Amino acid sequence: MADQSHRPEWVPAEGGDAFATQVTPGVEGGHDGMSTKSRRTAGGASRPRRRRLTNDEYVHGVLEGNRTILARTITLVESNAQAHVEQGQEVLRQLMPHTGRSIRVGITGVPGVGKSTFIEALGCLLCDRGHRVAVLAVDPSSSVTRGSILGDKTRMEQLARRPEAFIRPSPSAGTLGGVARKSRETILVCEAAGFDVILVETMGVGQSEITVRSMVDFFMLLMLTGAGDELQGIKKGVIEMADALLINKADGDNKLRAQAAKADYMQALHYLASTTQGWRPQVETCSALTGEGIAAAWKLVEQFCQITTESGGFAERRRSQTLDWVNTLIEEYLRTSFFQHPAIVEQIPQIKAAVADGTMPATAAAQALVRVFESR
Ligand SMILES: Nc1nc2c(ncn2[C@@H]2O[C@H](COP(=O)(O)OP(=O)(O)OP(=O)(O)O)[C@@H](O)[C@H]2O)c(=O)[nH]1
Ligand SMILES: [Mg+2]
Predict the structure, then answer these.
(1) CA of 180 to the centre of ligand 2 (A)
(2) Nearest 5°: phi and psi at 245?
(3) Comparing 150-159, 177-186, 202-211, 336-345, which segment has the lowest mean pLDDT?
(4) Exposed/middle/buried for 280, CB within 10 Å: 0-12, 13-18, 19+?
(5) Which of 157, 181, 243, 308 is deepest in the core (most CB within 10 A)?
């Protein structure tokens, strides 16, 4: 039977097992900077509205590393409400001079490969070495039912308790473009707050790796042994984007197989062009569970930074990523304003119908609509 203390108010006290409804007790948190105290007051009184902070309060709070304000600033820049977007952009503009001084690492791999466990192990190791680590997730599919939030809370338990670490679950589900904008800006806010390592987790099953690749310096692909790439659901394109392949779960019985897989992948990578100039993708084995190989994996990141910083590739990639991002934002803005334009909304059905029944060529249809858009 449901624990009475968590009986929702709509379930009668004597309802017994007839009411299957129950509320799972909340997780005492604090790792994301949110208050650990419940604000709910007896009798269901509405929670007090929080005073909106001024731009200065946001900016100084972030620069001082105030975790509550950091979390609130991220919430502000994640908001789609027009007033928030304006304030968020102004705050971000003031934070810009303090951003960029971090290494941004993307971590991908199929569900269950061990990304969260790996981040927990790597994150703790980096904190021990004096780094400050921010962990973000890009998971547009859903942040409610799948991995991210659950993973953060249950599998990054130790990292979540470290004062040097900050874990931010994926923004609530939305379009990949929307989630990506939020994640990029969250990276900047975290950098301004002094985090010098940004780990971005994403699921290796779709378009999101390409998006994450476009916002990180180093891209890691976690893999498993014992199954072909196709079985792992990894597309060749994802392997080609990686700066390092890490064969995880190289422990116990699996260790030898992992080493054999490493040799195979090294061979295979030989025939692939590398994505980063001056850097050949590397293959290592590791165990996120035992911690073996995690330091070696980080060593690859450090070597990469050193080589590409010396060659100028590091700064060059960041520059081109930012410029690409501007283009992406413009495209998104234009697409949205086009399809939401009242005249387009009104005319598109008949023009599309004409194309569908073969009375109007597609190019003429597109041109006609663009003319409508431009003339209003
Ligand atoms: N033996 C072994 N098990 C591991 C290792 N790393 C992770 N696991 C286990 O694999 C399972 C999945 O790990 P997660 O870290 O949640 O995997 P994930 O890739 O984050 O999964 P999603 O967030 O659902 O995509 C857990 O039960 C882990 O304990 C490892 O190195 N060795
Ligand atoms: Mg996970």
Answers:
(1) 18
(2) -105, 130
(3) 150-159
(4) exposed
(5) 243
Q: Full-prediction pTM beyond 0.85?
A: no
**Which structure tokens are listed for 88?**
């968020």
Cα separation of 113 and 109, whole Å?
Answer: 6
CA angle 372-374-376, nearest 5°? Answer: 70
Query: Is 232 near ligand 1, meaning CB less than 6 Å away?
Result: no
> Ligand 1 centroid to 155 CA: how many Å?
8
Structure tokens at 1: 């039977």
Ligand 1 atom index nearest CA of 146: 24
Structure tokens at 48: 């007090």
Task: Give all domains of the chain, ordered by start, each with its CATH number.
Answer: 51-98 (1.20.5.170), 99-311 (3.40.50.300), 322-375 (1.10.287)
Looking at residue 3, its pLDDT comes to 43
Cα–Cα dist 22/28, whole Å: 18
Expressed in angstroms, the distance from the first to the final Cα of the chain is 62
What angle (nearest 5°) sits at the alpha carbon of residue 280, between those of residues 274 and 283? 110
